[in-house]
Design a protein that fits this description.
The chain is an alpha/beta fold. It has a single domain, classed as FAD/NAD(P)-binding domain, CATH 3.50.50.60. The chain is built from twelve helices and 20 strands. Strands 4, 5, 6, 7, 14, 15, 16, 17 and 18 form a nine-stranded mixed sheet that branches. Helix 1 packs parallel to helix 12. The longest helix has 29 residues.
């Protein structure tokens, strides 16, 4: 076993970025992925790179807004009725975070990761020549009602504390800027110029080609069953292909991380928040930039080579079925605003489990039970947006470097 070797468990965007920066620092890197590299949440998400999303989901007023509808099958935020004490405990702790002070504390940590990632992604793409249809066109948060527009003023003021204020645009101005919108359908929008977007599947294809080019081994279809431990360290990773040994290990396992809590040595409170998307060709009347229809919680992303409707959140455990009603809600939401909300043929229906923590921050830290195992998981809805900075931080942790941003907000012992 080489001391400078590391096994990264998880072939999503977080695992891929960890592998990239570790390999660039001289580590011998192997990725172990239970299914296919670049699948799951890293494949069909909306492709947003969102510095504007510094605020967590738990903001003041969230419970009051969502509680009356959260058990409806097509609600933007839905809880599937079932007996699940772990979920209810998570929701109770989430509710305690819906206050200004904890919200701003979480936002500070999220903001640092998001800002770093934008810069690091640009550097990575320039260095490696990855073409993932990156576009820096900003994003519009669109409201159907004047009361909705006004309700967002407080959120924008909170974001101004981090230098993330938006441009407020009237409905008439929005229709002039974006001819794909039907006349009279919007009261206005908030425009975040700093946001960007890319095509996630092309990013993952580019990352895989880059990793293999620089000498990273990618093992697909290999599940893990735990660790062999020895004197407070991981002596081997137990997998379906046999035991694997390395000097260090990284768990970038997303929504599956709670399944490993027994070995990690603590209960990381991640809930799988199920998101959906539908991918189409670009319609004839296609938006120039991503549009988020805030009251319907529907996001429209125009890629150079396609078009995607996505979002919603469903707490249904590890349910692997596609809820057609939720796909229908995406279509209905877009149809309220757009001349051509979608077009045939429908290329893909998709779901993915977002790794949701109740405080809105990921875990980037060392396992309490094994000193040579790092955990990088729980990025909520922002794994893509936070991927490069997380990978850089994990490399700095393992390579004994000075973290380029403060790691304290992401400590594993905060739960």
């Amino acid at each position: 076993m080489a001391e400078q070797s590391v096994i990264v468990v998880g072939g999503g965007v977080i695992g891929a970025c960890c592998a990239y920066y570790l390999r660039k620092s001289g580590w011998d890197v192997t990725i172990v992925e239970r299914e296919t590299f670049g699948a799951a949440c890293s494949h069909g998400n909306c492709g947003l790179i969102s510095p504007s999303h510094a605020l967590p989901l738990a903001v003041p007023g969230t419970i009051a807004k969502t509680l009356p509808m959260m058990f409806k099958r097509d609600a933007p935020l839905r809880v599937a009725p079932r007996f699940d004490p772990t979920l209810w405990a998570w929701l109770m702790k989430f509710a305690t975070r819906c206050k200004e002070a904890p919200m701003l504390e979480a936002a500070a940590g999220r903001h640092a990761l998001l800002q770093s990632s934008v810069t690091l992604y640009k550097d990575l793409f320039d260095a490696e020549g990855i073409d993932c249809e990156w576009e820096s066109r900003g994003a519009y948060f669109i409201y159907q009602s004047g009361s909705g527009m006004d309700s967002y003023v407080k959120s924008d003021k909170w974001l101004q504390q981090f230098g993330l204020g938006a441009e407020r645009i009237s409905g008439e101005q929005m229709e002039s800027r974006e001819p794909s919108l039907k006349p009279g359908t919007t009261a206005g929008a908030w425009y975040y110029e700093m946001d960007a977007h890319l095509r996630p599947d092309k990013l993952m294809q580019g990352l895989k080609a880059t990793l293999e080019k620089i000498g990273v081994t990618v093992l697909e279809g290999t599940s893990i069953t735990g660790f062999a431990k020895e004197r407070g360290e991981a002596a081997a990773l137990r997998t379906s292909a046999g035991d694997m040994q390395a000097g260090r290990y990284v768990l970038a396992t997303g929504a599956w991380t709670p399944k490993l809590n027994e070995w990690i040595g603590t209960k990381i409170p991640i809930q799988p928040g199920k998101g959906y998307s539908i991918t189409y060709p670009r319609p004839g009347s296609c938006p120039a930039a991503p549009l988020a229809f805030m009251e319907q919680k529907v996001i429209v992303t125009p890629f150079k080579s396609g078009y995607r409707l996505g979002s919603t959140m469903e707490f249904a455990g590890y349910d692997s079925t596609i809820n057609k009603e939720r796909l229908g809600a995406l279509k209905r939401g877009a149809s309220l605003y757009l001349h051509e909300p979608y077009c045939e043929p429908e290329e893909e229906q998709w779901y993915g489990w977002r790794p949701m923590t109740y405080d809105g921050k990921p875990v980037i830290d060392t396992s309490p039970a094994m000193s040579n195992v790092a955990v990088a998981a729980g990025h909520n809805m922002l794994g893509l947006s936070m991927g490069s900075a997380t990978g850089k931080l994990v490399d700095e942790m393992l390579s004994d470097g000075q973290p380029h941003i403060d790691l304290k907000p992401f400590a594993i012992d905060r739960f």
